[in-house]
Amino acid sequence: MSTVGKELRGGSDGPVAAIPRRWLALTVLAAMQFMLVMDITVVNVALPDIQADLDFSQEGLAWVVNAYVLVAGGFLLLGGRLADMFGRRRVFMAGVLVFGVASAACGAATASWMLVTSRFVQGLGEALAGPAALGLIPVLFPDRKERTKALGIWGGLSAVAGSIGSLVGGIMTDLVSWRWVFFINIPIAVIALIMVPRVMSENRMAREGRRLDAVGAVTATGGLVAVVYGLLQAADHAWGSGRVLLPLLGGIALLVFMVVWEARTPDPMIPLRFFANRTRVTTNVVSVAIFAAFFTYMFLFTLYVQQVHDYSPMKTGLAYLPLTLTAFVGAGMSTVLMPRIGVKPVMAVAFLGGAAALVVAASGFAPDASFVSGFMPGLLMFGFFNGLAYPALINGALHEVTGQDSGLASGVQTAMQQAGAALGLATLVPFAFRYVNHHVADGTLPQVARTDGYALTFRIGAGVLAVGAVLILVLLEKVSGEMRDPLAEAAEASTDEAAAEPSSSGATR
Question: Which residues contact 100 (CB under 8 A, 6 or more apart)?
Answer without folding.
Answer: 125, 185, 186, 189, 190, 193
